[in-house]
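Hey L., structure's done. Input below.
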Amino acid sequence: MRSALTLMALGIERCMYCGENLGTDIDHFEPISRAPLRTFEWLNHLLVCSFCNSNRKRSAFPCDGDGNRLLIDPTSEDPADHLRLILRSGMYRDLTTKGSATIGVFDLNRRTLVRGRQNAFATRGPVLYYAQRLLAADRAEEAVQRLAALRDEPHASVLWAMLHAAEAAGAEEVLGQDVLAALRDPRIRKMVGAE
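Output:
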């Protein structure tokens, strides 16, 4: 099971909750104590880091008054529907009750994660810009190499947030003109898997 989950992980075996640490544990998304019949259900197993699994989530599984889960299920939901990453601050803002519960349970705005996302934002832009320059110089293989490296770095969510931001009003102010041009380049978008 671990080898199948690592192949599906974003980047190099990253935690499906925080996106920073290596996925070292297999978590039952819905705890066995709550749903023993889901113990062996494939979609109830997630590759996560030990911090998120053992120190944060443990057996937490918040539900609303009707018993509906409040954590974002990364196997069936797009976290961007519930969370907005503020690129400059590195902080997540909740868009829904699920977003709020997920931020709280996993402490997604803890200092180390925020700093890691800020650093990721600071380094992603120059790589995207350089990859676009490589494409313009007919050096596509090198561009592919640089962009593939971005997908393996911690905090892959930063790259996806940048791609979303490139489509929003005021994108140039947040991303800068050169990075925005790279993010809107269809070749770059295709190489990072956005199209």
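The chain has two domains: 2-109, 115-191. The beta strands are 25-28, 45-48, 83-86, 91-94.

-- N.
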